[in-house]
Amino acid sequence: xxxxxxxxxxxxxxxxxxxxxxxxxxxxxxxxxxxxxxxxxxxxxxxxxxxxxxxxxxxxxxxxxxxxxxxxxxxxxxxxxxxxxxxxxxxxxxxxxxxxxxxxxxxxxxxxxxxxxxxxxxxxxxxxxxxxxxxxxxxxxxxxxxxxxxxxxxxxxxxxxxxxxxxxxxxxxxxxxxxxxxxxxxxxxxxxxxxxxxxxxxxxxxxxxxxxxxxxxxxxxxxxxxxxxxxxxxxxxxxxxxxxxxxxxxxxxxxxxxxxxxxxxxxxxxxxxxxxxxxxxxxxxxxxxxxxxxxxxxxxxxxxxxxxxxxxxxxxxxxxxxxxxxxxxxxxxxxxxxxxxxxxxxxxxxxxxxxxxxxxxxxxxxxxxxxxxxxxxxxxxxxxxxxxxxxxxxxxxxxxxxxxxxxxxxxxxxxxxxxxxxxxxxxxx
Amino acid sequence: xxxxxxxxxxxxxxxxxxxxxxxxxxxxxxxxxxxxxxxxxxxxxxxxxxxxxxxxxxxxxxxxxxxxxxxxxxxxxxxxxxxxxxxxxxxxxxxxxxxxxxxxxxxxxxxxxxxxxxxxxxxxxxxxxxxxxxxxxxxxxxxxxxxxxxxxxxxxxxxxxxxxxxxxxxxxxxxxxxxxxxxxxxxxxxxxxxxxxxxxxxxxxxxxxxxxxxxxxxxxxxxxxxxxxxxxxxxxxxxxxxxxxxxxxxxxxxxx
Lengths: 429, 256
Fold this sequence. Notes:
The complex is a heterodimer.
Chain A: H1 6-15, H2 24-36, E1 60-67, E2 70-78, H3 88-99, E3 102-112, H4 115-130, E4 134-138, H5 141-150, H6 168-201, H7 209-219, H8 224-246, H9 254-293, H10 296-302, H11 307-345, H12 350-360, H13 363-389, H14 395-426
Parallel strand pairs in A: 2-3, 3-4
Antiparallel strand pairs in A: 1-2
Chain B: E1 12-21, E2 24-34, E3 39-44, H1 50-57, E4 65-70, E5 73-74, H2 80-87, E6 90-93, H3 105-116, H4 121-134, H5 150-161, E7 168-172, H6 180-197, E8 200-204, H7 208-214, E9 217-222, E10 227-231, H8 234-239, H9 245-251
Parallel strand pairs in B: 3-8, 3-9, 6-7, 7-8
Antiparallel strand pairs in B: 1-2, 1-4, 4-5, 9-10
Helix pairs in contact in B: 3-4, 3-5, 4-5
């Protein structure tokens, strides 16, 4: 009758005419243990004594016995990762940390154990070894083998990282010192992109026409629905906000000029820039970043092909071309939004509104808007591709590259808007 | 690369190579010579820098010190154009296959041909099909990498690496992820390419069966000493009593 569970083993022990003494439970526990290990009752004679009574379903137990310079640590009971170590574990660890000359590890009445026991023993042995204390392993075979395995591969020299956290000043200094490195890196990327564009002009670029067309389709045609909605609503909002003030003077007709000039000159381009940095800047960083993770960019390099020609140039050209076109479209949608408010709510008639728009806006406004659009396109493409190309080799790095690409392109758009506006002001155009 | 090289000059060599990540030195004083027709194995335990050494050899990571010679020409001290020219003479199979995900398998294999030859599209397609068939992927020309299994991606990667019939093929863990039969077929293909086209192989591998079956030369990188601890034919390494214990342990799966 070989037991299939400790419970069965104990019933067997009880029925086997063992005297009902106070130590019956302990004996039962030990019997179950040895039956589980496939040993016979004769093995009971050799059970090491730990000096404590093993109870059924007891928690983790540790005993420490000193015999001259020898410390004998005996573990027993049930060890579960969710339970804390017994208080005696601390005594044993202190003994291993220099309190004895020889450490003997044994187990008695150990019925269930998991990594929590192994962690305790590993810490014990590590402390003993650090103090040159001899360790004698008299543990059950499985436990002993796992313990040996934990020390089988020594820690790699120099691989350990310190746990020291950098202070505020150190981190601040590190951030400041990294700025020139980042700027240099970006300038190098910019130089690469410029060389790639030069090769394109000379007809020596590796860029494939189908990649360019696909990029144009993706950032142009596919963006039309979102540009339509945002620009229409923006034109609508602009008209509403303007009308509130202009109506007070009976000048609601000037809503047409406000919306027309505002959209054509700058707002249409800014709307497109914001939408495209969220849409394409993030997409470029994520796609190229994932290609970095999958070694696809390396595969281009080892084939002797320039990753800048292949991945950056088509996207940069496509965005630089499509953003101005989308700006024109956004302008028209914005004017339509203003038209709906003017005609539907301000009581203007349609020819009146359209005539007012045509008379107040001029070609120069549209041209300035196109300049904004082209600049924004290049900024978004450069930011997305730069962060993708410099992406690390993990999912976390791709996420970070995507976020940074969007943030940087938005900041770039705002800064560029300010610069172009100031230049236009200085040039009185 | 082959036109300018005398038959005695090693195809790839390194001299006193040191590779580091920041301050951490991954390996030092690595010297190796890969001759024409060699099937050269870079062996070593996990984390010893095998794949990094391969990246240095194939021009993706600059060494901290020392030289990499392509047919006697210093690779890392050459100009960008020369380096790109030298890299056209090599083919690389990456650990993951690294196929360009936006292209079909035929386009992946055909791209190097499209860029560096004047072949017609139909001829490129035919050549791509042949290379895919050699890698056991006949009929999969129009599949995208995302539509095939990991093992198939690896074989497609090999087909792409072979596209231009390169002088030297770098293979990073070619058998990993392949079933035993495919792994054996891959070994046969490597031997066949070496025997028929004289292709030189530099391979990073853990697969002992493959190592003993195909390699005629190699080095063992030791993670503890961070340098080359054994070199030569892996079978000779195994039987040579002078072989470093770490290399013997590796070659005998820890039993030696």
